[in-house]
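re the bet — no i am not wrong, look at it urself. input seq straight from the record:
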Amino acid sequence: MEDVREVSAELHRLADAEPLDPFDTDAVLNRGRRGLRRRKLLTVGGAVVGVAAVAVAATLLPGNTQAGGKPPVAGSQQQDALFEPVPGVPRGEESVGKRLTMTEAERRCHLRFPGEKRGLETPYGGPFSGQRMSFKVIIGARATMCTVPGGDRPTAALLAEVAKDPVPKTTAGQLRNCSAQTWVDVTGWSVKATSWSSRVEGPLGTVEQALLIAVSPSGRMAIACEINKGSLDGDVISQGTSLMDLNHLRYDNNVFTRATATRPAQLWSLPNIGGNSDGYTTVGWGRLNGGATRVRLRMGATTKLDVPVTDGWFAYTWETGPTTAKIGDFTVTAYDKNGKVVKVLR
């Protein structure tokens, strides 16, 4: 009852400072009881009803809402277990594609890689949040890249999950790991394309890799995320991850053909292929117009792979096996559902 008296005293103090229009307390109580019944929370009685009445009245006072004026969101506690805010940085997709100063980009990358003391190389036209940048080159120092982080810093619990499953086969796991890479929570984004592969590569043994393309709930942002065991530590070759503002694509967003007044830009990552007669490996992704339903990868006349296209998006990781083809024989062609060529990419 001491708590009730303290709350009551505080309500009186607020009422004296900011007088409110009178309201019908019986109506408030009835409204509170109806709300409680609808939610099937619990049956109240006796002194508990009095506390509930004070709580209902308090919710009608100005400023007594969750931060931002929004009610608690279902699942927010689970997200809090995965991410924590970065001071001064927006959360989620709102952090993607924002122009930054070099000082801010370096601040974020030093948070991302706390052991790294070097500054960043100044990028052409940047920096932007989500942009992939390199730490300054120093002879004898390891070359390291940083995708400038967003505002969703992974918790120790999330990083532990990633460590246990560094190259997931499920899309949920891939979204989780991409979030840990970029510090942008993409766990609720819509997956458009994904590919997973493993290959045997000499003394390295089995090398696993995944590639995922996802679009944000608003449709404004997209991520092309490359996942392998070097993704989290800034490996130069591994972390080929791009965060894109689809309404404001930049020079480094793999634009293949520019947007027009009626059609969005078409995207294709630069050809990434290597190998020899024992087999070639290639990784890539893109977005096409024109109703494409599949993309055909071909090495020479006989070795080929068809990749599905969803809403214009596709992704591939491909190992050919032994072939007489040369790297220059690699072609990528998009077809519609009737087998008509939509685009020749290479």
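see?? The helical segments are 2-17, 25-39, 47-59, 76-82, 102-112, 156-164, 171-182. told u. also Residues 1-12, 14-77 have pLDDT under 50 and may be disordered. so pay up
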